[in-house]
């Protein structure tokens, strides 16, 4: 399974292509919520497993199996997320942080479709690069790791990848809000 970088770049590239092909009807709002779900969405389960390996609650593996699934992610966290995304879309429009073709916030149904599309996009890349994490080259290039027992964590890599992703999403928001005003 690829790391967060390929998921983020693939989703943002797809969102940009859809924005171009639809003459802006697939807006930065669509791209943002699609990207968040393709990038981070289903891996919330893997994060919960890693967190459980540190805190020892004992439910991380079960939660990871439930969430890191193409259909279960859409149903369980996807339904509450579509409510959250619809509200965030309204706030982003009111504060003029993102531009939209129609100047109308995304509906819950649209957000649910974006959650679904992001989930399927995430698993498309996961299965495209699947080698079950056993190849040294695969582990080195994609930095996914494969472990038995407690997950090894390189805090430096987590910080660097996190900062790069924040800069990429922040730049996207800047270009699609402040960049369009000038």
UniProtKB/TrEMBL annotation:
Top-level taxon of origin: Eukaryota
Keywords: Membrane, Transmembrane, Transmembrane helix
Transmembrane segments: 71-90, 157-175
Keyword Transmembrane helix (UniProt): yes
Protein name per the record: Uncharacterized protein LOC103338324 isoform X2
